[in-house]
Amino acid sequence: MSPFLRIGLSNYDSGPYLPSQGEVINPYCAVMVKEAVESGKMYVQKKPTMYPPWNSTFDAHINNGRVMHIVVKDKSAEMVSETTVELKVLAEKCKKSNGKTEMWLELKPQGRMLMNARYFLEISDAKNIIDCETEGFFSLHQRRGAIKQAKIHNVKCHEFTATFFPQPTFCSVCHEFVWGLNKQGYQCRQCNAAIHKKCIDKVIAKCTGSAINSRETMFHKERFKIDMPHRFKVYNYKSPTFCEHCGTLLWGLARQGLKCDACGMNVHHKCQTKVANLCGVNQKLMAEALAMIESTQQVSGISWETPVEDTSKGEPLIEPDSGGEQPQEQQGHQVQIKLTIEDFVLHKMLGKGSFGKVFLAELKNTDQYFALKALKKDVVLMDDDVECTMVEKRVLSLAWEHPFLTHVFCTFQTKENLFFVMEYLNGGDLMFHIQSCHKFDLPRATFYAAEIICGLQFLHSKGIIYRRMFFSVFFFLHRDLKLDNVLLDSEGHIKIADFGMCKENMFGDAKTSTFCGTPDYIAPEILLGQKYNSSVDWWSFGVLLYEMLIGQSPFHGQDEEELFQSIRMDSPFYPLLQIKEEKPERRLGAKGNIRQHAFFQEINWEALEERKMEPPFKPRVKSPSDCSNFDKEFLNEKPRLSCADRTLINSMDQNMFSNFSFVNPKMEKIFS
């Protein structure tokens, strides 16, 4: 077996401007794989130099002493920057990150490049291939991570996404710098306008990147009565100057950009056609003035159309902490009990991912064991997942009384991490158990499926939850249902876990369009970019049921592209239960009463929901702290928190997580 890496290079950042080098135009990569000779004192290139296009992939086999030398050149074929990577070290990083990794390569003398790599085992022995086919080549032998498309904030036709700026960047609204190293802001995918996060509600001009002369833009100009074109002329800047549209530095020694004769706005040549006709208009001051007028008109009972679009039509930027105001009694619980990481002893690591880690933790002096989920704030911020984290906290805190959902006892935070203190389910997850028995028998799969249905229907139902003197109405989609996220307690009952991809406020005919989920479980409508509702969870449920009964995934592919094509085109046979329905409105679970299906005729639903049905399988659990039902790969690692990016943490606005801390009233019983 000869292991190899599949490597992709993208997102080259040339770094700060150097007059001696000039602007890098049309950069490309030259990749040279070299072998170590004379005990590593010299490296010899035996294969031709590769010139992989950006965002493409190439393969490199892993041998001792083999390195990859990457050279970035410009259109004149002159070297701009370079770096050297040891393939063996890169392979080790992939192994520690579920077979793949993504990292920024620091280049010399300056610049950086985003590289992603996947680790593969190439099977060359024919006997191994036959054995694999005999035992089920597509068997469920490894865990599969979830993916999520970058969140898009649609404001005035702009498509803003969270962006980390590697260099000082100018906000196009308030005309101030986005301060801090690697500071996060928003940048439009169409016109490249860069802004602070706080300035997103002050944008008054519609995006010109893709519709500068469209009918909608012309109507907007006529209605809003602001159409003041700039009078740009080429200008020679004698000092460092920033573009007031995309926010980056104007490169070059002469004729670096354009300057408006009227208002003095400075822009790149490439940004001229993307600048809105707002010559002499201060967007920040005008937005504040219009907001003040709006509030005055509302007090007077007069309708006024604000210049900033209502973002509630899409997903809110930061959603409120709960469905209504919490009573004083509930707030009192949060004040009375305050936990920190120092109150826990970390015994074992149960799992990890790009988000952070999950530990088996003991509350000191209580003999109580919990699953402690630690999220890294820098990763949450970089992935623009602050809202998703708050949604996960709300789902856990509101649904703790349901028997088939994971319960949370409290949440707290430090400067670097967010913590969920959840019940410890020592039975392990279904992925762990199916790897040992290849597939579940019919009674066991039916029992698990029935309890999962109860949990899903609870999440999908629009209900009123009475708790501590207040009501809360909610409606959720799970969107990441899979074997890894279904856990067993010590008695053998299931619990649905990991609500990080939930979508709330899906009332009535409401639909959403975020591309997210684990590739094997993603519904066709998500792949096609269509809006969807709770029916996507029933598609995932169908895939999960297929895996429990057959022991392999219904869809296959060597990469994500082939897998997604298989999901859209293939029609695998589902035994006993026809759930594979491409039309969401006709999918079993979304249409009709799935509980009345003949597949569940042996299920007493009332007894099931009261946990009175005897589970067909009881996991082997020796003690409350037993962790034998979890992967040894994680258990063998030291239980310690990951180091965060100190620079990013220090520049972070901690107020974004101000409403995160929560204490479940049940936590009082542990201290009493």
UniProtKB/TrEMBL annotation:
Q: Where in the cell is it found?
A: Cell membrane; Cytoplasm
Which keywords annotate this record? ATP-binding, Cell membrane, Cytoplasm, Kinase, Membrane, Metal-binding, Nucleotide-binding, Phosphoprotein, Repeat, Serine/threonine-protein kinase, Transferase, Zinc, Zinc-finger
Detail which positions bind ATP.
350-358, 373
EC number, as in UniProt: 2.7.11.13
One matching Pfam family is: Pkinase_C
Q: What class of enzyme is it?
A: transferase
User: How does this chain sit within the bilayer?
Assistant: Peripheral membrane protein
Q: Would you tell me the Gene Ontology cellular component terms?
A: cytoplasm; plasma membrane
Q: What is its main location?
A: membrane
**Domain named Protein kinase: which ranges?**
344-600
Q: Which reaction does it catalyse?
A: L-threonyl-[protein] + ATP = O-phospho-L-threonyl-[protein] + ADP + H(+); L-seryl-[protein] + ATP = O-phospho-L-seryl-[protein] + ADP + H(+)
User: Which ranges carry the Phorbol-ester/DAG-type domain?
Assistant: 157-207, 229-279
Q: Which family does it belong to?
A: Belongs to the protein kinase superfamily. AGC Ser/Thr protein kinase family. PKC subfamily.
Name of the featured protein: Protein kinase C
Species assigned in the record: Nothoprocta perdicaria (Chilean tinamou)
GN (gene name): PRKCQ
